[in-house]
Specification:
By secondary structure, the chain is of the alpha+beta class. Helices cover 27% and strands 32% of the residues.
């Protein structure tokens, strides 16, 4: 090739000499030979071998792994009785074949299942844990979704997970482990640190160009995060040279932790993996191989003193379809999270105040385990086959029975301690949130005689407007379902009302205005298109501000592309067909002193949407309660709200926090609320919800994803009847001044009414058990300390505004207070008068406090 190149250049020179005059000959000759020199140099460079790094300078730290999906294309029952035991027995056999082989296994619920169903296998695992080759990791009950569970649920994942590993094996897990979760919320670094973990292994939504980095959370907490090369199911059969060379391109690191083995449906280290370790560990053309312990590997990373990048943001998003698919599972999750936290609060009050003899720990623990197991990423995310949801819903129902039993009995014992003497029948209204509330409450009242009408009186003897929703008259018995506005119900407490027989139902004092096109109370005036059912105007009367932009609130049906709409992916067009375009039925269904309701019934293809638009006297929000008969496939429906604001900011609730995201139209997860407020911070509109997680904001249009028609892996996903509710909350100021997070908690935790007997009692007719101040500090839990032998109270709060603040907790029956971690291990004693507990909180901090009751409590 070199000779032909030289010959070609010389021929070119001779031809040029014939054409050019002698004055240009030398110049041409010079450039010709310069070209020859460059060409020769290029050819030498092309044939010069590129220096290769010494592959023996690299080390593959090998940890056997079997990512086990608790349910996905199979049921939990199959995982317990086939997938897990076969994987674990197989791994134990591989350990016998290759002494020193190490294996990492997360998900405490799997260990508990083996302990219950396969005790011999559990004992064999225990022996390997004692030997240091079987390594519990993760510290959580399962490998959950990390965007849709409430912050308190994530705290319980670690509480139940780490306490199990500590109690059964004496292992304090330090390495977080969630390689397949579909994204990671911004408060996770703090949650990990507060749970006693320092490191985190994951795969999805990782930052580019770095396998190792410091992940810094909202509060400044840092953990060392690692993304294993080659995913979490590496095969060792063909060696690791190319994998490590590729991984080293973006980092000076030469030591890499690799997760090898068969997974998803179990498997663990393969025969081919063991053979490859034996084959390649002394091969000079392959990297060095070490059988690794993940915690030891992370300590090595720290000791290397390399400058790892710092990433300070949430690690999201992927699989946006999962925020909405299988909506009933998501509804169960939200409902049970709220129910269990409420049951814990009132059970704690009843037990530690001496009104209940024992705390219902068994019921609450078993119910929590159901919630936590079903937060596994493929279950809660809706990406499993249909039978998985039949199985999980049956478990949810049993958990709801346990939680409801704990709550009902605790409320009953508190009610029995209240002095309810007086006229009529006593009705106690309970508030589970630590601030005073004035809200509507629904009550069931039964008389053992014929009764025509009732009246409700407050503790001062003043009549409260009430509205009868239903009357059931039977021989010798009359039952009423009523709704009334309960004023000033104390923080985490109750207020007593009196139910009296009346000759006729009282007329409303300040009637709500309702027509087929209008709803109006003292706060808002709502205008509805009578032909299409769209809400065209939302007027804030106090601020004289219209909150809806044209064309107003409606439902959008958006086709998905491609034809098969999976649980994971959506590829939605920006806009779809507005439901109601071809007409809707608009009727008045309630006209009363407490609530007015306009019903909008719309047909779309083979589906039916019924929206009850509800306005209350004395309540500054607008509720929409929706019933859907859903029969569509490859389609998504969103509630679209164009807001009359300029350049709004988009704010979303996340676990234990709040985050601003670009108003880009991307589908993102949120918990109980999202908000758009103008740049100046003068006005905003919050959208509260009771069971939905997917949403988007583009410009000034806020949309909540209501339902989808995914066809894979469950071709019948979400077909059938569904109910949900969401609420418009217009406000002055930002979400902080408007206390949107409180309104969302109220929407998800309505006041509870309990009809009780007339009796004496030590408690007054109105009482508060606990109050937390200031308003930017949110109480997330009040519960008994974990463990039957313990008799302390656990209180947890989170600072939500992002500002340092002093906290005051009024809880009068406490003798001593200690700050603890999320695993309820003491850290430092809190000074001062603990009956009026005071402490400082940093911006976005999660703080857990253990309270010792006074003697005799």
């Amino acid at each position: 090739m070199i000779e032909s190149t030289i010959h070609g250049i010389r021929r070119d020179i001779m031809e040029k000499r014939k054409r050019l005059s002698s004055s240009f000959f030398f110049l041409s000759f010079f450039f010709g030979w310069a070209s020859l020199s460059l060409s020769l140099a290029d050819n030498r460079a092309q044939h010069q071998p590129v220096p290769q790094p010494d592959i023996r300078a690299f080390t593959a730290h090998l940890i056997g792994h079997a990512h086990i999906d608790l349910s996905w294309l199979w049921l939990w029952e199959e995982t317990v009785h086939e997938v897990a035991p076969q994987t674990f027995w197989g791994t134990l056999r591989q350990m016998d074949r290759l002494p020193g082989l190490t294996f990492a296994q997360s998900q405490a619920c799997l260990y508990e299942a083996m302990e219950k169903h396969f005790p011999e296998l559990f004992r064999a695992i225990h022996r390997k844990i004692e030997a240091g080759t079987w390594i519990p990791v993760g510290g959580m009950w399962v490998e959950p979704d990390l965007n849709m569970p409430d912050g308190e649920s994530l705290a319980r994942q670690f509480l139940y997970g780490k306490r199990y590993f500590l109690d059964k094996f004496g292992i304090d897990v330090k390495v977080g482990w969630n390689p397949d979760s579909f994204g990671h919320s911004f408060q996770l670094p703090q949650i990990l640190k507060k749970a006693g973990l320092d490191y985190y292994v994951f795969e999805r939504c990782a930052p580019e160009k770095t396998p190792v980095f410091w992940w810094e959370g909202m509060d400044g907490s840092r953990i060392l995060a690692y993304v294993p090369p080659g995913w979490y199911l590496v095969s060792l059969k063909d060696g690791l040279r190319n994998l490590l060379l590729e991984a080293s391109r973006e980092t000076p690191l030469k030591d890499f932790l690799l997760l090898y083995g068969e997974g998803d449906h179990g498997g663990g280290p393969r025969d081919s993996d063991v053979a490859a370790i034996l084959k390649f560990r002394d091969d000079p053309t392959e990297p060095r191989l070490e059988l690794a312990n993940p915690e030891a590997y992370f300590k090595k990373l720290v000791d290397l003193n390399l400058s790892y990048p710092v990433i300070k943001r949430e690690l999201n998003f992927t699989f946006p379809g999962c925020y909405t698919t299988q909506v009933e599972t998501k509804r169960f999750n939200r409902r049970l999270e709220s129910l269990l936290l409420e049951a814990e609060k009132f059970s704690s009050v009843a037990f530690f105040s001496g009104y209940r003899d024992y705390y219902p720990e068994r019921d609450l623990d078993e119910a929590w385990k159901v919630i936590l197991r079903n937060q596994f990423h493929d279950i809660l995310d809706g990406s499993s086959i249909g039978p998985v949801y039949e199985e999980s819903h049956a478990a949810y129902e049993k958990a709801a029975q346990r939680a409801g039993r704990a709550l009902d009995f605790s409320l009953e014992t508190i009610a029995m301690a209240v002095n309810t003497e007086g006229l009529g029948s006593p009705l106690l209204v309970f508030n589970s949130l630590p601030w005073e509330r004035t809200e509507p409450v629904v009550a069931q009242v039964t008389f053992s005689r014929p009764v025509e009408a009732i009246a409700i009186m407050d503790s001062a003897g003043d009549e409260i407007p009430c509205q009868v929703l239903r009357v059931d008259k039977r021989p010798g018995q009359t039952s009423f379902e009523v709704i009334f506005l309960a004023p000033s119900v104390p923080p985490l407490g109750y207020r007593t009302f009196r139910i009296l027989e009346a000759r006729s139902q009282a007329k409303p004092r300040i009637p709500l205005v309702v027509t087929p096109t209008t709803l109006e109370n003292e706060f808002f005036k709502i205008t509805i298109d009578p032909k299409k059912g769209w809400m065209t105007d939302l007027l804030d009367k106090k601020n004289r501000r219209h909150f809806l932009a044209a064309p107003g609130y409606s439902l959008e049906a958006i086709p998905d592309e491609p034809e098969i709409m999976s649980a994971w992916e959506i590829s939605l067009k920006e806009a779809g067909e507005r439901i109601g375009e071809k007409g809707a039925e608009v009727t008045i269904v309630e006209r009363g002193p407490v609530r007015a309701t306009v019903r909008i019934k719309s047909h779309f293809r083979n589906s039916v949407f019924i929206q009850d638009v509800q306005l209350y006297a004395g309540v500054p929000r607008l509720d929409i309660r929706m019933s859907i008969d859903w029969q569509e496939r490859n389609l998504m429906v969103k509630a679209a709200v164009p807001v009359a604001l300029d350049s709004p900011k988009a704010i979303f609730e996340i676990p234990f926090g709040v985050i601003q995201r670009p108003a880009s139209g991307d589908e993102v997860p949120a918990l109980k609320w999202m908000d758009v407020s103008d740049e100046s911070g003068q006005f905003g509109l919050s959208l509260l919800n009771d069971s939905r997680y997917g949403c988007d904001v583009k410009g000034n249009i806020m949309r909540l994803s209501l339902i989808r028609g995914a066809t894979y892996p469950d071709p019948e996903a979400d077909r059938g009847h569904h109910e949900l509710a969401f609420s418009f909350y217009p406000h002055a100021g930002t979400w902080k001044e408007a206390l949107t997070f409180r309104r969302a908690l109220e929407f998800n935790n309505p006041l509870r009414a309990r009809w009780t007997l007339i009796h004496k009692g030590k408690l007054p007719s109105v009482h508060s058990f606990l109050r937390v101040m200031p308003e930017n500090v949110v109480l997330t839990a009040l519960k008994k300390e974990m463990g039957y032998a313990h008799r302390n109270i656990i209180l947890r709060v989170v600072e939500i505004f992002g500002q340092e603040t002093g906290v005051v907790v009024e809880l009068p029956f406490v003798a001593e207070a200690w700050e603890t971690d999320l695993i309820e291990r003491p850290l430092a004693k809190l000074p001062g008068d603990v009956r009026m507990l005071r402490f400082q909180m940093k911006p976005y901090e999660i703080k857990t406090v253990r309270l010792t009751p006074l003697a005799g409590r």
